[in-house]
């Protein structure tokens, strides 16, 4: 099995050319052999007829003395380059060449057909291509004669042998030229591909921004280069996202860990009252909780990225989940002087992952509380219309600045307001909401009036049968 594509193309080229050349040579050779034989036959027939005519006129001159007439006729034909023999009633009367005469005597009378038409046949001779004979039967008075003209097939076979010899040299030579030509052709047409391979070899995770430069290749190859470059762009983008994700994650992890260490260091630096230790432990507990939340979020997103996050689909009442979440955050909201109101269609059954959807509602509520100042109001609505389940969470909070709007679903994105606040989240809440909505074949969007509040809307199809897609953000 040839592995080099160049050699494969060359081999195909040579194979194709061989078949073409051999077929062509066989046809030409066959045609030549037949036409040489036909020319010989034509000469022999002409000579036999001439000898017959000569014999007939000699017979008239000699008043029917056929042995003498045959002798004269044969003598006159001696210089014609073919063997002439005349038979009478199966007996050889006269022949130009005694050597061939014997062969003719043995074969011609037996082979000759009765009648007066010409006949051409080959008499085999051991060690030679044989003797070609034209027979002309004639009748003079009541006596039948056969006039035969013969020639060895040697001359034909010598000519054909010459042609064969030329072909034996020319054919391999032509194939060699075809092979070299095919190789050069394949090499030339594959050169852009080699260049592309070399360049592709040099591209690694470190220089993914590099692209293939292939000059002006053929249409097919430029399509290949374009697809490869597109693939590189996608890889580059996802590598970038991954790098950012890792950098952001490490950055986020560093703060709570630093707080825990600092608090422990301070507490342990000298003897303290039990209350002081309690205070320190409470701070450490808070930060540990934050850390747990962050690690959970990261793990969820990483699993979703790796495609391992499977939806645990089950039938449940979505209105119950919404009510439970609203009730759960009520005390937190009340502590900030925020009022939470909810209105849900009753007995709204839904088939999906209950835990994830609970998480989605909770994240939206958590944000609404976080970004709404005291004496604000949060309204949650759950409805079903035209085959869609719609959940809206509206608040009368700070709203979202137009500059932040395109980014809030990105991982680790936090608005300026949230960034400066110690109680702020990690910027993963909405990325998770988006992933959960999309995993249920739904979508999430928002409208906001900066300074007056925001409304987040999640739309889910009533049944969402597809498996969890991989998140993009
Ligand atoms: P965070 O942990 O910072 O809340 P999220 O992904 O949940 O992260 O939200 C990203 C950003 O979107 C927040 O930092 C905030 O600027 C903005 N945001 C989210 N929800 C609201 C809201 N209800 N009102 C105003 N801004 C919001």
Write the layout of secondary structure elements.
Elements: H1 5-61, H2 66-77, E1 83-88, E2 91-95, H3 98-111, E3 119-125, E4 128-140, E5 143-152, H4 154-202, H5 219-268, H6 274-306, E6 313-317, H7 318-335, E7 339-344, E8 349-353, H8 354-370, E9 377-385, E10 388-395, H9 416-420, H10 429-439, E11 443-449, E12 453-461
Parallel strand pairs: 7-9
Antiparallel strand pairs: 1-2, 1-5, 3-4, 4-5, 6-8, 9-10, 10-12, 11-12
Helix pairs in contact: 1-2, 1-4, 5-6, 7-8, 8-10
The structure holds adenosine-5'-diphosphate.
Residues 367-368, 370-371, 395, 397-400, 404, 408, 413-415, 417-418, 424-431, 454 line the site of adenosine-5'-diphosphate.
Summarize the structure.
The chain is of the alpha+beta class and 473 residues long. Helix content is 56%, strand content 19%.
Overview of the molecule:
- The protein has 10 helices and 12 strands.
- The protein is α+β, with helices and mostly antiparallel strands and 473 residues long.
- The strands form 3 sheets. It has a 5-stranded antiparallel β-sheet with strand order 2-1-5-4-3, sandwiched between helices.
- Helix 1 packs antiparallel against helix 4, helix 7 runs parallel beside helix 8 and helix 8 packs antiparallel against helix 10.
- The protein is rod-shaped.
- About 1% of the residues have low confidence.
- The structure holds adenosine-5'-diphosphate.
- The site of adenosine-5'-diphosphate has 25 residues, from helix 8, helix 9 and helix 10.
Tag the structure with descriptive keywords.
Beta-Lactamase, 5-stranded mixed beta sheet, Heat Shock Protein 90, 5-stranded antiparallel beta sheet, alpha+beta, Helix Hairpins, binds adenosine-5'-diphosphate, 3 domains, 473 residues
